[in-house]
Design brief:
mainly alpha; 148 residues
Length: 148
Amino acid sequence: MRRIDIVAFAVALSATVLVAADQGSYFQRSWPWVGLALAATGALALLAPDDLRAGRAELTFVAATVAITLWTLVSWLWSEEPPNTLQEALRAPIYIAAAVTFVALAGMGGSLGLACGVAAGTAGLAAYSLVDRVLAPTQGELLTAPLG
């Protein structure tokens, strides 16, 4: 494996597991650290001396993520529940940071590492949930951890 794949694997695995461990970052308390971690990682990837190749599809993905974030913010104007809409608008920049980070890492050649990192993190979370359910069935038939 190349170094960029190892870095991409570590970023994807960490993002998947840490976000899931904090209730899927559903609550506002986790947004600052998730956003900052992803934005810092994306900035480091963009500043790295490696060649970054981002094609039309990748740039369209980032632009679409920015567009949906702006649409979420603007929808506050006609929302039936403005406080909830504002909460969603405050969460949405995390998606931009994630998109930029993953596109940058993939554009540097880390696609395999990203895919493997997300797969490993997801498999680890599934295994944890099943073991937790078997050893401590606090919610009956429900899988309760780590996402709640």
